[in-house]
Design a protein that fits this description.
By secondary structure, the chain is an alpha+beta fold. Strands 1-7-3-4-5-6-2 form a 7-stranded mixed sheet, with no helix packed on it. It has 2 domains: 3-46 and 164-223, no CATH class; 50-154, no CATH class. It has helices at residues 3-14, 23-41, 110-116, 185-199, 208-211, 213-223, and strands spanning 50-57, 65-67, 72-82, 93-98, 125-129, 132-136, 144-154. The protein has 6 helices and 7 strands. 27% of the residues lie in helices and 20% in strands. Strand 5 (125-129) and strand 6 form a beta hairpin.
Length: 249
């Protein structure tokens, strides 16, 4: 659907017009519903709404804290950092792993952090705290442009122009924002229809189809599973050593 097709469908199902169901109201209802549905999509585990993002890695005497992006859904895949020792050194991209500071018996002052952590993949870590990434590493002497890369999951962009009849909503609006998978367009529109009907001073009865919205939404989710049909699945076979735990040693 385009944005215009989306709102035309909703107004047809609710028997409304742009006067009785203005764009502003439709957007106020529709965008939060979109976010809620997209959180459920993440559970199909196909890396939908993945968005690699970079930010400058700052010298450690400036900060070690990097807030998550505003659009960030509370999931991420991994973090990479270009832990160059100084501005003249070669790139030193490494994957950094999470650590819980409770397991490290050092204080949080800069001297202790630098004495504990390093600048390679085995000695640099991150901690998640108060909605931010905290880099725990050796000294980063200078700022590194786009030196921190977050493989994250973001909310798809809000719809804003219900007169747009050119671009399908599944198309990413830009290289840094996401569209909504086509399979979600109809259940999303139906969810707005249901919200509208139930919000009336005298609620409007739902159709039988709308009463079964959950089942229709699950069907839509199923179409988003198993994107790659060529995945190999390896099944373990019990060894002949007498062990029945199914593991090979």
């Amino acid at each position: 659907m385009t944005q215009k097709g989306w709102i035309d469908y909703i107004r047809f199902k609710t028997r409304t017009s742009s006067t009785t169901f203005p764009d502003a109201e439709a957007l106020a209802i529709g965008n939060p519903i979109k976010d809620r549905l997209c959180i459920k999509v993440l559970k199909v585990n196909e890396d939908y709404f993945g968005m690699p993002q970079t930010t400058d890695l700052l010298a450690t005497d400036t900060t070690r804290e990097y807030p998550f992006p505003i659009e960030f859904i509370n999931q991420m895949k991994r973090i990479e950092a270009n832990l160059k020792k100084d501005s003249d050194s070669d790139d030193n991209w490494v994957v950094i792993n999470e650590v819980d500071m409770n397991f490290h018996k050092h204080t949080s002052d800069e001297t202790s952090i630098q004495a504990t952590y390093g600048l390679d993949e085995d000695s640099a870590f991150f901690e998640i705290f108060r909605g931010s990434i905290w880099i725990l590493s050796g000294e980063i002497e200078d700022d590194v442009t786009a030196g921190l890369k977050l493989w994250s999951f973001d909310y798809p962009a809000n719809i804003t122009d219900l007169s747009d009849d050119d671009d399908d909503m599944s198309v990413d609006p830009s290289t840094t924002t996401l569209g909504v998978p086509r399979a979600l367009h109809l259940p999303w529109a139906d969810a707005v229809v249901i919200a509208y009907k139930e919000s009336r001073d005298k609620p409007i009865p739902l159709s039988q189809y709308e009463q079964n919205w959950d089942a229709h939404f699950l069907d839509a989710l199923d179409t988003l599973r198993n994107t790659n049909l060529d995945r190999a699945v390896t099944v373990g076979v019990p060894s002949e050593s007498g062990s029945d735990d199914g593991y090979e040693n």
